[in-house]
Known about the structure:
two-stranded antiparallel sheet; 10 strands
Amino acid sequence: MEYRFLGRSGLKVSALSFGSWVTFGEQVDTDLAYDQMKTAYDAGVNFFDNAEGYENGVSETIMGEVIQKAGWKRSDLVLSTKIFWGGDGPNDQGLSFKHIKEGTEASLKRMQTSYVDLLFCHRPDVFTPIEETVWAMDQMIREGKALYWGTSEWSADQIRKAYDFARQEHLRPPLMEQPQYNMFHRDRVEREYMSLYEDIGLGTTIWSPLASGLLTGKYNNGIPEGSRLDLKKYGWLRELLLETEEGRAKLEKVKKLAPVAEGLGITMPQMALAWCLKNKNVSTVITGASSVKQVEQNMSALDVVDKLDDEVMMMIEKILDNKPDAEQDWRR
Ligand SMILES: NC(=O)c1ccc[n+]([C@@H]2O[C@H](COP(=O)([O-])OP(=O)(O)OC[C@H]3O[C@@H](n4cnc5c(N)ncnc54)[C@H](OP(=O)(O)O)[C@@H]3O)[C@@H](O)[C@H]2O)c1
């Protein structure tokens, strides 16, 4: 396993990590979660990602049970949770001081730990002033409930505003973002956040590296039974990824990418994950899986990163044809 510093901090996270969205509590019970997490841990994964909103907290409960059963040393783990969707009450959502405190405390109980290493604001909250959220996150750190805090799917402007306010008030600034990043979703990581990596030392823990499975090629000839896009509850995701003009265009690209992987003697999941790993502004690639076999396959992506040399990356770029524009150089 390779370990990367999380942004400008002294914390090291495994380049491949493991998360529980969709799967834990929906497709994966505690026994299977144990086998999956053990497989990831044995491969060197130290970062395990979660959120209060995943299966209404069941996902955190399962992860807590697995960690207890495995008996891993807490200091060997980097655990996260994300706060935003905690329930249906008027104060169970968003990023108010009240919900951040109560949501975090409930998550810690479910995960059977006294602190998470990484605490995320799962989305921006249009109703709570950013100042209140920064105070609340700083307070969680002062109370020892989190070691670092960050954001998920915040704009660069929102992150910078939080950072500047924290610096001005001598509070802990946000360290990391959790954005979607994969071959089809590149803009924020490759363009919008560029100045933040240097300026504020932003780290990234990227999600959906396989675009929910699309990039494995499993949907090239229809929807396999039991796969994510076959799940009733996730019909909205199926519509978004497969039933739109854009979705169909992506599938065509996946079909064109297959021979590239084949030519390199690697699988599509390996190639798509290795492609994310090539980006040095990615601190960790959060993988997801519904079986142990998928975890094993995904962990092997690190072995093939070197196969994606400049020439191969150019071939992939040509097929994707979606590279975000760089800043315009106006000099003559
Ligand atoms: N911050 C956020 O807003 C946010 C949002 C989403 C996710 N996340 C985090 O990021 C993690 C990863 O996201 P993700 O699960 O969407 O990642 P992903 O890698 O894009 O999709 C994972 C899914 O693809 C399929 N798959 C994975 N490996 C495969 C393989 N080798 N062969 C065939 N199919 C394979 C599995 O689904 P099936 O087998 O069911 O088809 C698996 O559950 C989540 O667990 C969560 O922790 C965060």
